[in-house]
Design brief:
four-stranded mixed sheet
Amino acid sequence: MKILFTSESVSEGHPDKICDQVSDAILDECLKQDKLSRVACEVFICDQKMIIGGEITTSAKIDYDKIAREVIKKIGYEDETIGCDWRTLKIEVMVNTQSPDIALGLKNEDDLGAGDQGIMFGYATNETDSYMPLAIKLAHELAQEASRLRKSGKFKWAKPDMKTQFTIDYTNKNEIKIDTVLISVQHDKEYIEAEFKNYIKNEIISKIAKKYNLNNDYKVLINPTGQFIIGGPKGDAGLTGRKIIVDSYGGYARHGGGAFSGKDATKVDRSACYMARYAAKNLVAAGFADKLEIQISYAIGKPQPVSIFVETFGTNKVSMEKIYQAVNDNFDFSVSNIIRTLNLRTPIFSQTSTYGHFGKEELPWEKLNLVNKLKKYL
């Protein structure tokens, strides 16, 4: 029996990702003007209507309408018959300020309480050089490259809405390979199907497989329903925070259920996941385990976590006691320290709203600056 595992990704033109990008663009604009902004921004889009809602407490002056249209224009939606049109989209803003009950725990910047209760997970594996699982890394790269080629004009007939999926065959641990690649790409009504599919196979999928020195005898599925003309918000409604597995580890690791986009760093369902990833990645890179997952839990208004749990899936190279000692000595999961350590009062979040929140070297929670210090525990 084959041992198969699958992860998926979506392009920036996917309806849910449109909403994530608008939410994070609003968050970044708030932080540019007021670094202490409290933001929980939710966006809904369907056809030619967008609703921007949530709770935002800030001194910033935000032009919600302008930000949303700029995001959609950048994606490339300019025809409401097949997706939406950034120029004629109807936008309704329904934004309140943060509840005073939640704000009670957020008054002291040096000892912030968690903005909510919940469980958060961070994960890392040495399966790839970015310490991300292989299937989700490939799925992101396929969606990102297809979108890049669309925007450059080289990918003829392609439109913004895309979904990708990689199935990896782990049957032989010494020969990990691709089993199936699935991609659905929105396209013009008038297109040459054979040329379109050959371009996807030869100029996108094949080049990614070669880049990672993987096999070329995999199965390929392209637009399995036959055609994909109507897409984006015309084909499906979108909502902020509905792609949480795409945003994290593609299903390889557990998820606490809290979405990331549109939330400032006092919301631990975002910031604590970033800190947990930072810890897990540095521990795996230091050689504590081949793969490692950290769970953190919080109570609303309390600065320190209620619990910390580490899982290595039997791959640890040292005792669990040694791993917990390294975690406790080197990682402070208090809310204020997470914000300071990862510099989360700065407007860096728009770049996380597409193609995953993890595995991008430029982000602060991806730094491997504690590896040498952690190796001393070995």
